[in-house]
Amino acid sequence: MSDTQTLIENRPPSVATLFVQRVDATPDAEAYRYPVPGSAGRPDEWKSLSWAQAAERVYAIAAGLADLGVRAEERVALASSTRVEWILADLGVMCAGAATTTIYPSTNAEESAFILADSESRVLIAEDAAQLAKARERRAELPELRHVVVIDPAGAEPAEGDPEGWVLSLADLEARGAAHLEKNPEAVKERIAAITADQLATLIYTSGTTGRPKGVRLPHDNWSYMARATVATGLITADDVQYLWLPLAHVFGKVLTSGQIEVGHVTAVDGRIDKIIENLPVVQPTYMAAVPRIFEKVYNGVASKAREGGGAKYKIFQWAAGVAREYAKVSQDNFRRTGRTGAPFALSAKHKVADALVYSKIREAFGGRLRACVSGSAALAPEIGFFFAGAGIHILEGYGLTESSAASFVNPGEAYRTGTVGKPLPGTEVRIADDGEILLRGPGIMEGYHRLPEKTAEVLESDGWFHTGDIGELSADGYLRITDRKKDLIKTSGGKYIAPAEVEGQFKAVCPFVSNILVHGADRNFCTALISLDEPTILGWAEEQGIKGDYADVVAAPQTLELVDGYVKRLNEGLQRWQTIKKFRLLPRDLDIEHGELTPSLKLKRPVVEREYRALIEEMYAGSREA
């Protein structure tokens, strides 16, 4: 048996046990960094918790929940943005033997109430008064919800009509837990010792595009496997500093906390997306996970800044971007053949000049120490990936689903290949079905959907194979390339199949102004697109052109339509005839989470967007022979 197999097969039975082992091994080492907002315009102050300090709070939360009467596998919901208290509360829930139900803070009151009721959550840990208000509004529908614990208690005091003790602060819960531990010092240790590998740890509700979300049941064994398997890839070490901003209610963010506990590195936690650019030079991470939209925004921002610097500066950027892509492709191909990175002398010389002029500044913006980024949740346009790779920021794409505990594939360090999601994690099996669907089997696969046995049976075979719903191809040496969602493939009226995500990704690499694009063409005789533009970037361009007005005015201007039309034509030059975009419309505003058009992990909800902009779509097909 190999060392990797031994590591995985000898994994602890629970995340709680994993946490105890980490605290015992390195009690005084730094575990978490978190910002405390500065007053009167001053910058945030970053504070730290050691593993021992984190454990003190985690065990107090666990004991407090026990004192509230929470029993093994009962659900405790968490509705909060990404912050250090989210991690401490989640660990406290699991150390109490209970299970965390995750709720995005952007979820509306109706859907929050559905998740709380369907999960039969006994306690809700809410971030602030706004999250408390959602539960209070629907309290009549939540007979199982006994308590709401508020992290930031300002304005979240108990109100008239609340049951006795229904609302308390996180500080109150921790004080209650400390008192409980004084009377019963072994209370939390006993609960941890009783947890079994198949015991429910997390209930994550998928953000479906239609209908009610489904609760994915993930037992402790899923997470302890993920912790050991991700560390076995060698991608993270004890010396790393991770910057964690992803939503922890999403499985991609959640899995990053397990790997950290296993290896013991530092994690800087701040979920404020508008603070990412500001935080990176302060945190100076060596490792960060993100979704493709973040890299697209950075690329568009760099291109926009270069263009604002004048024609010469923009030409230098365009030249450097081309060199970066060529260098990355040649270097990756060289590594594949010889096991060594690098490029021929002439290209290396150009790359060195471009590095001094452009790439070094991009790396500094990321903090100057970034060793690798992991990209997941959606496909990254290969040309964006090659650009960053050539600039010295290696984006390692990975792949997984909520139902597979997030990580099933990841690119392996130096041997990464842009445009693929890498190889399976140790212990995960993959098979490609006859219709191209990716099937997975292994210790990361969910137990099933909560209270939905028929839905579970639709995707999970009796022998453990899980149907992902994604289409992909495996290379001879085991690298996976995702083509599209099985249900999202477009079949034109001419019988041609098109993967819209592939076309959309290519457009994002071509057009530096795009924010979101939806390609439409199912049962039509040509493809069309709905396009929204990145507001800061297009407004900066508009100012240069003397176009006045807000975003809606700018996208309606003839010059803007002409600009985007040029990029659509460039896209079409690289597509098959049946893939080309014949018509497009610019949307009057960007797509967002608030209007339900994007998931909290910034993935496009196609049915929602198509339904909302049905009139624009039909307008593009008016007069065609199928209309």
CATH top level assignment of the largest domain: Alpha Beta
Number of strands: 26
What share of the residues lie within helices? 40-55%
- Oligomeric state of the chains present here: single chain
Number of helical segments with 4 or more residues: 22
CATH fold-level assignment of the largest domain? Rossmann fold
- Strand composition percent: 15-25%
Helix-strand category: alpha/beta
The CATH architecture classification of the largest domain is 3-Layer(aba) Sandwich
Whole-number tally of structural domains? 3
The overall pLDDT average reads: 91
The largest sheet has its strands arranged as 2-1-11-10-12-13-14-15-16
Largest sheet: 9 strands, mixed
Ends distance: 63 Å
**Radius of gyration computed on alpha carbons:** 25 Å
List the helices and strands and how they pair.
Blueprint: H1 3-9, H2 15-25, E1 30-36, E2 45-50, H3 51-67, E3 75-79, H4 84-95, E4 99-103, H5 109-119, E5 123-126, H6 129-137, E6 147-150, E7 167-169, H7 170-183, H8 187-194, E8 200-205, E9 215-219, H9 220-232, E10 241-244, H10 251-263, E11 266-269, H11 276-283, E12 287-290, H12 292-308, H13 311-338, H14 345-365, E13 372-375, H15 382-390, E14 395-399, E15 409-410, E16 423-424, E17 429-432, E18 437-441, E19 448-449, H16 453-459, E20 466-474, E21 480-485, E22 490-491, E23 497-498, H17 500-510, E24 514-520, E25 527-533, H18 535-545, H19 551-556, H20 558-573, E26 581-586, H21 606-612, H22 614-621
